[in-house]
Write a structure and sequence with these properties.
single chain, alpha/beta
Length: 262
Protein backbone atom coordinates (compact mmCIF):
# COMPACT_ATOMS: atom_id res chain seq x y z
CA UNK A 1 0.00 0.00 0.00
CA UNK A 2 1.35 3.50 -0.76
CA UNK A 3 2.73 5.19 2.34
CA UNK A 4 1.36 8.55 3.52
CA UNK A 5 3.54 11.09 5.32
CA UNK A 6 1.63 14.06 6.70
CA UNK A 7 3.92 17.05 6.29
CA UNK A 8 2.17 19.30 8.80
CA UNK A 9 1.80 16.89 11.73
CA UNK A 10 -0.52 17.63 14.66
CA UNK A 11 1.25 20.33 16.62
CA UNK A 12 -1.03 22.86 18.33
CA UNK A 13 -0.14 25.48 15.71
CA UNK A 14 -1.38 23.15 12.95
CA UNK A 15 -4.61 22.30 14.77
CA UNK A 16 -5.11 26.03 15.40
CA UNK A 17 -5.34 26.44 11.63
CA UNK A 18 -7.53 23.40 11.04
CA UNK A 19 -10.03 24.28 13.77
CA UNK A 20 -10.82 27.52 11.94
CA UNK A 21 -12.31 25.54 9.05
CA UNK A 22 -16.07 25.17 8.67
CA UNK A 23 -18.34 23.71 6.04
CA UNK A 24 -19.18 27.26 4.97
CA UNK A 25 -15.60 28.44 4.45
CA UNK A 26 -14.17 25.14 3.25
CA UNK A 27 -16.92 23.04 1.61
CA UNK A 28 -19.42 25.55 0.23
CA UNK A 29 -19.34 23.85 -3.18
CA UNK A 30 -20.69 20.64 -1.59
CA UNK A 31 -23.47 22.10 0.57
CA UNK A 32 -26.09 22.62 -2.19
CA UNK A 33 -26.29 18.85 -2.83
CA UNK A 34 -26.14 17.73 0.82
CA UNK A 35 -29.41 16.60 2.41
CA UNK A 36 -30.47 15.33 5.82
CA UNK A 37 -31.05 11.84 4.38
CA UNK A 38 -27.42 11.30 3.38
CA UNK A 39 -24.68 9.20 4.98
CA UNK A 40 -21.31 10.91 4.63
CA UNK A 41 -17.69 9.77 4.87
CA UNK A 42 -15.25 12.55 5.77
CA UNK A 43 -11.75 11.40 4.80
CA UNK A 44 -8.89 12.99 6.72
CA UNK A 45 -11.21 14.75 9.15
CA UNK A 46 -8.49 16.29 11.34
CA UNK A 47 -10.03 18.05 14.34
CA UNK A 48 -13.45 17.47 12.72
CA UNK A 49 -14.80 21.02 12.64
CA UNK A 50 -15.99 20.48 9.06
CA UNK A 51 -17.25 17.02 10.05
CA UNK A 52 -19.42 18.52 12.80
CA UNK A 53 -20.97 20.91 10.30
CA UNK A 54 -21.64 18.08 7.85
CA UNK A 55 -23.22 16.02 10.64
CA UNK A 56 -25.62 18.90 11.33
CA UNK A 57 -26.82 18.65 7.72
CA UNK A 58 -26.73 14.87 7.13
CA UNK A 59 -28.24 11.71 8.59
CA UNK A 60 -24.91 10.21 9.70
CA UNK A 61 -21.23 10.99 9.25
CA UNK A 62 -18.15 8.80 9.60
CA UNK A 63 -14.82 10.57 10.09
CA UNK A 64 -11.75 8.69 8.84
CA UNK A 65 -8.19 9.24 10.03
CA UNK A 66 -5.02 7.28 9.37
CA UNK A 67 -3.21 7.21 12.75
CA UNK A 68 -4.21 6.67 16.35
CA UNK A 69 -3.10 10.22 17.19
CA UNK A 70 -5.29 11.70 14.45
CA UNK A 71 -8.24 9.48 15.42
CA UNK A 72 -8.02 10.84 18.98
CA UNK A 73 -8.03 14.43 17.67
CA UNK A 74 -11.12 13.73 15.55
CA UNK A 75 -12.93 12.03 18.43
CA UNK A 76 -12.29 15.03 20.64
CA UNK A 77 -13.71 17.31 17.95
CA UNK A 78 -16.85 15.19 17.59
CA UNK A 79 -17.58 14.80 21.31
CA UNK A 80 -21.31 15.03 21.87
CA UNK A 81 -22.26 14.61 18.19
CA UNK A 82 -24.67 11.68 18.27
CA UNK A 83 -24.77 10.98 14.54
CA UNK A 84 -20.99 10.91 13.99
CA UNK A 85 -18.39 8.18 14.45
CA UNK A 86 -14.62 7.97 13.92
CA UNK A 87 -12.79 5.12 12.18
CA UNK A 88 -9.12 4.48 11.50
CA UNK A 89 -8.18 3.65 7.93
CA UNK A 90 -6.14 4.57 4.86
CA UNK A 91 -7.77 6.30 1.89
CA UNK A 92 -5.77 4.03 -0.42
CA UNK A 93 -7.72 1.01 0.93
CA UNK A 94 -10.88 2.22 2.63
CA UNK A 95 -12.27 -0.20 5.25
CA UNK A 96 -15.83 -0.12 3.89
CA UNK A 97 -17.86 -2.18 1.41
CA UNK A 98 -18.69 -0.90 -2.05
CA UNK A 99 -21.57 1.60 -2.36
CA UNK A 100 -21.71 2.53 1.35
CA UNK A 101 -21.92 6.35 1.40
CA UNK A 102 -24.01 8.99 -0.32
CA UNK A 103 -21.15 11.52 -0.09
CA UNK A 104 -17.41 10.90 0.27
CA UNK A 105 -15.63 14.14 1.19
CA UNK A 106 -11.96 15.08 1.55
CA UNK A 107 -10.64 18.53 2.40
CA UNK A 108 -6.91 19.25 2.00
CA UNK A 109 -6.18 15.51 1.86
CA UNK A 110 -5.21 14.54 -1.68
CA UNK A 111 -2.21 16.87 -1.65
CA UNK A 112 -0.68 14.66 1.04
CA UNK A 113 -1.40 11.13 -0.18
CA UNK A 114 1.09 9.01 -2.07
CA UNK A 115 -1.32 8.04 -4.87
CA UNK A 116 -4.20 10.51 -5.27
CA UNK A 117 -5.71 8.66 -8.25
CA UNK A 118 -5.87 5.42 -6.25
CA UNK A 119 -7.35 7.39 -3.33
CA UNK A 120 -10.07 8.80 -5.59
CA UNK A 121 -10.80 5.33 -6.99
CA UNK A 122 -11.32 4.09 -3.45
CA UNK A 123 -13.54 7.07 -2.66
CA UNK A 124 -15.55 6.28 -5.81
CA UNK A 125 -15.79 2.58 -4.85
CA UNK A 126 -17.43 3.27 -1.50
CA UNK A 127 -19.75 5.93 -2.92
CA UNK A 128 -23.28 4.86 -3.82
CA UNK A 129 -24.51 5.14 -7.40
CA UNK A 130 -25.95 8.61 -7.77
CA UNK A 131 -23.81 9.91 -4.91
CA UNK A 132 -21.00 12.44 -4.82
CA UNK A 133 -17.27 12.42 -4.25
CA UNK A 134 -16.16 15.89 -3.15
CA UNK A 135 -12.56 17.06 -2.79
CA UNK A 136 -10.95 20.44 -2.21
CA UNK A 137 -7.23 21.15 -2.10
CA UNK A 138 -5.12 24.27 -2.03
CA UNK A 139 -2.54 25.07 -4.70
CA UNK A 140 0.60 26.39 -3.05
CA UNK A 141 2.25 27.90 -6.12
CA UNK A 142 -0.93 29.94 -6.62
CA UNK A 143 -0.71 31.51 -3.14
CA UNK A 144 -0.24 35.25 -3.51
CA UNK A 145 0.59 37.89 -0.91
CA UNK A 146 1.68 41.44 -0.29
CA UNK A 147 4.14 42.82 0.77
CA UNK A 148 6.54 40.60 -1.19
CA UNK A 149 8.86 39.72 1.66
CA UNK A 150 11.76 37.57 0.35
CA UNK A 151 11.60 35.37 3.46
CA UNK A 152 8.07 34.33 2.50
CA UNK A 153 9.38 33.23 -0.89
CA UNK A 154 11.86 31.14 1.08
CA UNK A 155 8.97 29.74 3.13
CA UNK A 156 7.15 28.71 -0.04
CA UNK A 157 10.24 27.01 -1.49
CA UNK A 158 10.87 25.21 1.81
CA UNK A 159 7.31 23.97 2.13
CA UNK A 160 7.24 22.75 -1.47
CA UNK A 161 10.51 20.89 -0.95
CA UNK A 162 9.40 19.25 2.31
CA UNK A 163 5.99 18.24 0.96
CA UNK A 164 7.46 16.67 -2.18
CA UNK A 165 10.10 14.86 -0.14
CA UNK A 166 7.17 13.23 1.68
CA UNK A 167 5.60 12.12 -1.61
CA UNK A 168 2.92 14.82 -1.61
CA UNK A 169 1.83 17.29 -4.28
CA UNK A 170 1.46 20.81 -2.84
CA UNK A 171 -0.01 22.08 -6.11
CA UNK A 172 -2.87 19.59 -5.91
CA UNK A 173 -5.63 22.12 -6.52
CA UNK A 174 -4.89 22.45 -10.23
CA UNK A 175 -4.65 18.66 -10.62
CA UNK A 176 -7.93 17.56 -9.05
CA UNK A 177 -9.84 17.46 -12.33
CA UNK A 178 -7.09 15.44 -14.03
CA UNK A 179 -6.89 13.03 -11.09
CA UNK A 180 -10.67 12.56 -11.06
CA UNK A 181 -10.71 11.89 -14.79
CA UNK A 182 -7.91 9.33 -14.36
CA UNK A 183 -9.88 7.70 -11.51
CA UNK A 184 -12.76 6.98 -13.91
CA UNK A 185 -15.62 9.15 -12.66
CA UNK A 186 -18.61 9.42 -14.98
CA UNK A 187 -18.99 13.19 -14.54
CA UNK A 188 -16.87 15.80 -12.79
CA UNK A 189 -17.70 19.41 -12.00
CA UNK A 190 -14.50 21.37 -11.32
CA UNK A 191 -14.57 24.75 -9.57
CA UNK A 192 -12.29 26.96 -7.49
CA UNK A 193 -12.59 29.24 -4.48
CA UNK A 194 -10.29 31.24 -2.25
CA UNK A 195 -9.51 32.14 1.30
CA UNK A 196 -8.38 35.73 1.83
CA UNK A 197 -6.68 37.12 4.93
CA UNK A 198 -6.44 40.91 4.91
CA UNK A 199 -7.79 42.52 8.08
CA UNK A 200 -5.86 42.95 11.32
CA UNK A 201 -7.46 39.98 13.08
CA UNK A 202 -7.04 37.58 10.16
CA UNK A 203 -3.43 38.60 9.57
CA UNK A 204 -2.59 38.19 13.26
CA UNK A 205 -4.14 34.73 13.26
CA UNK A 206 -2.65 33.45 9.98
CA UNK A 207 0.78 35.08 10.38
CA UNK A 208 1.10 34.07 14.02
CA UNK A 209 0.04 30.53 13.23
CA UNK A 210 2.66 30.12 10.49
CA UNK A 211 5.30 31.88 12.58
CA UNK A 212 4.82 29.08 15.11
CA UNK A 213 4.42 26.26 12.58
CA UNK A 214 7.65 27.02 10.78
CA UNK A 215 9.58 26.65 14.05
CA UNK A 216 7.65 23.98 15.97
CA UNK A 217 5.60 21.66 13.73
CA UNK A 218 6.51 18.35 12.08
CA UNK A 219 7.59 20.33 9.01
CA UNK A 220 10.09 22.24 11.16
CA UNK A 221 11.56 18.99 12.51
CA UNK A 222 11.79 17.62 8.98
CA UNK A 223 13.49 20.78 7.74
CA UNK A 224 16.08 20.68 10.54
CA UNK A 225 16.74 16.99 9.91
CA UNK A 226 17.32 17.75 6.22
CA UNK A 227 19.98 20.31 7.06
CA UNK A 228 18.03 23.59 7.12
CA UNK A 229 19.68 25.83 9.77
CA UNK A 230 17.55 26.91 12.72
CA UNK A 231 18.35 30.53 11.91
CA UNK A 232 16.66 30.15 8.53
CA UNK A 233 13.48 28.94 10.22
CA UNK A 234 13.71 31.79 12.72
CA UNK A 235 14.10 34.29 9.89
CA UNK A 236 10.99 32.95 8.09
CA UNK A 237 9.05 32.92 11.36
CA UNK A 238 9.94 36.55 11.99
CA UNK A 239 8.86 37.49 8.46
CA UNK A 240 5.39 36.03 9.07
CA UNK A 241 5.04 38.27 12.12
CA UNK A 242 6.27 41.26 10.09
CA UNK A 243 3.65 40.52 7.43
CA UNK A 244 0.93 40.13 10.07
CA UNK A 245 1.75 43.52 11.60
CA UNK A 246 1.65 45.36 8.27
CA UNK A 247 -1.64 47.21 7.74
CA UNK A 248 -1.22 46.68 3.99
CA UNK A 249 -0.74 42.93 4.40
CA UNK A 250 -2.93 40.73 2.17
CA UNK A 251 -2.87 37.03 1.31
CA UNK A 252 -5.09 34.90 -0.92
CA UNK A 253 -5.11 31.11 -1.20
CA UNK A 254 -6.54 29.42 -4.28
CA UNK A 255 -8.29 26.05 -3.96
CA UNK A 256 -9.34 23.59 -6.62
CA UNK A 257 -12.58 21.69 -6.02
CA UNK A 258 -14.27 18.71 -7.63
CA UNK A 259 -17.80 17.35 -7.25
CA UNK A 260 -17.70 14.00 -9.01
CA UNK A 261 -20.32 11.34 -9.76
CA UNK A 262 -19.35 7.68 -9.65
Amino acid sequence: MPKNVYTHGHHESVLRSHRWRTAENSAAYLLPVLTDKMVVLDVGAGPATITRDLAARAANVVALEVTDEAVAVAREGLAGVANAAVTRGDVHALPFPDDTFCVVHAHQVLQHVADPVLALREMRRVCKPGGYVAARDSDYTAFTWYPQLPELDDWMALYQRMARANGGEPDAGRRLLAWANAAGFSAVTATSSTWCFADDEDRAWWGGMWADRVRESAMARQALASGVPQQDLDRISSAWRTWAADGDGWLSILHGEILARP
